[in-house]
Each structure stands twice: as C-alpha cells, then as structure tokens.
Design goal:
By secondary structure, the chain is mostly helical. Among the domains are: 159 residues, no CATH class; 66 residues, no CATH class; 47 residues, no CATH class. It has 22 helices and 4 strands. It has a two-stranded antiparallel ribbon with strand order 1-2. The protein has a two-stranded antiparallel sheet with strand order 3-4. Strand 3 and strand 4 form a beta hairpin. Helix 10 runs antiparallel to helix 11, helix 15 runs antiparallel to helix 16 and helix 17 runs antiparallel to helix 18. The longest helix is centred in the middle third of the chain and has 30 residues. The protein is elongated, with a radius of gyration of 38 Å.
C-alpha cells in the first residue's frame, strides 16, 4: 500500500501535514483500473481506430470521475473554521484560502487557539500575516495574548526583525524593542561597525540594568580594539618576550569579559593600572568582584607557572604590617586549580596546609600525595593508627617513611589510640 506524507509548507494557505493512507491508496487502486482501459493489448491491435479512441475517451472520463470523488472529500470548501482546525489536528490537507472575511479569519484563529496546538496556531498566524494588513493583525492580536505570544516567538525564530519591531512598537513594549535592536549587533562582522552600532544602542529605552550592560559591552569592545592593535604590533615586531614564548592563538576581539581578563592577566599582569590592558584597570572599570578576579588571575598565572605571582595574590598585610594568606575563593579551590596546572608538590603543600577544615585538608593531601601534610596532620591529631596505616603508602626508605618512624617512636606524644 502506498503512503503519502504531507507536510506543512510555511507561508502558504494550504497546510500539508500527516498521512492520508486510505484515501491516497484507494485512489491509486481505482486509477490502476483505468490504466487497463488505456493499454491496447495485442489481441485488440486489429481493432478499428474509432473503437480504440472510444476506449481511451471512456478511460479518461473515468479517471476524472474517480479523481473528483477523491478530491471532493479532501478539498471541500464547505468546512467551518472549527471543522478545518479539527482536520488539521488529524493531519488532513486543508486549504485556508476560503476564509476571506476578517470575521472568518478571526474565528479560525480563535478555534486554533482553543485547540491548544502550537503548530496549528502558528500555521493560521502565517496565513493571517500574509492576508491581513499588519495594523489590523496587530490590533486583533492585542486582545488575543496566546496568539500574540506565538507570533512574537515565530518572528524571532525566523528573524523577521522589521515586522517584530513594528509589532513591539505597536504594543508600546519599548524595552523589548530596544533589546531586539541590540541583538542586531550579532549580525555585524566588521568590528568598527559593531562598535559604532553599540554606541548608538546606548541611548535606547532599556531598563537601568540593561543600560549598564550595553554601556559595558561598548566600553569592552572599544578597549579590546585598542589592546588588539597594540598586541598585534608587539607580536609582529617581536619586541615582547611573553609573545615570543607564548604566541597568541586567537584575537581578543568580541571575547567575553572574563576571557578578556584572563588574557590581560596572562600577557599584561604587571602593567600599571593606568593602561587599558592592565588587569587591575579592567577590574576597576567593569567592577569585577574579588572572587572572579582572583579565580581568573590564579588560573592565568598558574598556567604560566608564575608561583611568586600566585603567592602575592593571596598575601595581605594588616595595618601593623603583619602578612597573612587570604583567599576569597577558599584555599581548597586554590589547591585544585594549582594541581590542574601541574604545580610542584612543594607549592601544593603550602596551600593544602591553609585549608581550614581538617577532613578536607586530609582528603586533598592524600589525593595529591602531599605526604608531609598528611603526616603532620595525623601527628597533631595524635592518631597513631592512621599514621601507621599511612606508612604503607609512602615509598620504602624515603624521607617520609623515616619521618613517620621518628614520630611513632616519640615517647613524648600521648596518642589517643
């Protein structure tokens, strides 16, 4: 049995969707009967031309009659809007062109909404969009919020920006108009044109929060253009050791703020705050939180294995001049980032010791083979059993094994077990 799959063709009045197995197969079965009348068998080859012509005319007439029987069922123009929607829900072929008056079209839309089928609602909206003036369509949709939401979504998905903006302006949804215009920057490839476009977006009627974001976006791109031009010159001229040692893999243009900060911490970490490419300048200009700044700077300096910079990042000095280590992201995260960047054990151990929670400290020290931290912690906990068990995990004859033996033989320690 032959199956014909009919799909919706967007933007036209006739909707093709679903399968019409019975009708199509029946039609082809009936039409196959007429083909026998058209075929001239050898036994009839000697018939008179007039006889053969009569047979052909009769078969052709039968074809039209059969086709009429079939198509009169599926292309009837007498369906009501409700019947039309029901047929569409069953995947039948339906022509919407018969609905010519505004009233009929609106009833059809209301029936589609009542059917709770998003595809059918969208299909009817496509038909209305094509056959109604936009002012009338907008006015009627204003009191039909479900259909309105479907149309807005459809226009966004199909990038019909002009009609979408006209609709949002009609609805007086000024912030959405501004956001929709702002999104247009994604389609601008030329960086100078994008910068000018973003500059023009600053005056659009955004909310206070969105205005701040758009201003930051413009400022960031402006900053990136300056940094990119300068760094490209340094890299080409070979005047900077870090660019010679670590060539850039991509342009900084149009990158997110966090990526720009990482780039700045990687290539321009020691620059004075007055320069556009300085990490501290970026932090101040864009009000980057301490946690985000420390996390990004740590990742960049650890990648370069600049352990002194890492140490300075967490060293603070009080008003008496005393220094201490402080990490707004928690030292357990510092350890994990350092380990991912293959920090030596000596560096790891220093930061594992700064983890306040003893259980977390032990887990990290054991996981990353910071033996001295594990040994000292079990000693401080006076846990002889755990210390003796850990002795089996260190290399035989190593300094760590000797240290454990020395502690276990120390009679001054009052073990808890």
């Amino acid at each position: 049995m032959m199956t014909m799959t009919l799909r919706r063709s967007a933007g036209v009045g006739t909707l093709w969707e679903g399968e019409t197995n019975f009708q199509v197969s029946s039609l082809f079965q009936m039409l196959s009967l007429t083909q026998g009348l058209k075929t001239t068998p050898r036994s009839c080859a000697d018939q008179k031309p007039s006889t053969r012509n009569t047979l052909v005319r009769e078969s052709t007439k039968m074809e039209f009659q059969l086709a009429g029987m079939f198509f009169s069922q599926d292309y009837s123009s007498d369906w009501s809007p409700k019947d039309t929607v029901r047929r569409m829900q069953r995947g039948k072929v339906c022509s919407l062109e018969r609905f010519r008056s505004l009233q009929d079209k609106l009833v059809l839309l209301d029936e589609a909404v009542a059917g709770h089928d998003g595809n059918i609602i969208t299909a009817v909206l496509i038909f209305l969009k094509r056959t109604l003036r936009k002012e009338i369509l907008f006015q009627e949709l204003e009191v039909r919020q479900v259909a309105l939401c479907h149309l807005i979504h459809f226009l966004k998905e199909t990038s019909e920006q002009k009609l979408l903006l006209d609709l949002l302006r009609f609805l007086d949804r000024t912030e959405e108009v501004a956001l929709s215009q702002y999104r247009e920057h994604l389609n601008i490839q030329d960086v100078e044109k994008r910068r000018e476009f973003l500059k023009g977006c600053i005056g659009l009627p955004f909310s206070a929060e969105d205005t701040s974001h758009v201003q930051d976006h413009y400022t960031l791109l402006e900053r990136q253009i300056i940094i990119e031009a300068n760094d490209r010159h340094l890299e080409t001229a070979g005047q900077s050791e870090i660019f010679r040692k670590y060539p850039r893999k991509a342009s900084i243009l149009n990158m997110p703020l966090v990526t720009t900060l990482f780039y700045s911490c990687f290539y321009h970490y020691t620059e004075a705050e007055g320069t556009f490419s300085s990490p501290t300048n970026l932090k101040k200009t864009f009000k980057i939180p301490d946690k985000q700044y420390v996390l990004t700077a740590l990742a960049a300096r650890a990648k370069l294995r600049a352990w002194n910079d890492v140490d300075a990042l967490f060293t603070t000095k009080n008003w008496l001049g005393y220094t201490k280590k402080k990490a707004p992201i928690g030292f357990h995260r510092v350890v994990e980032i350092l380990q991912r960047n293959n920090a030596p054990v000596q560096v790891l151990q220093e930061y594992v010791r700064l983890v306040e929670d003893v259980e977390t400290q032990l887990n990290l020290a054991t996981k990353y083979k910071c033996h001295d931290v594990v040994i000292d912690t079990y000693r401080d906990l006076k846990d002889r059993i755990q210390l003796a068990a850990y002795r089996c995990k260190v290399e035989r004859g190593s300094a760590e094994e000797e240290k454990i033996d020395s502690i276990l033989n120390n009679t001054q320690i009052r073990w808890k077990n």
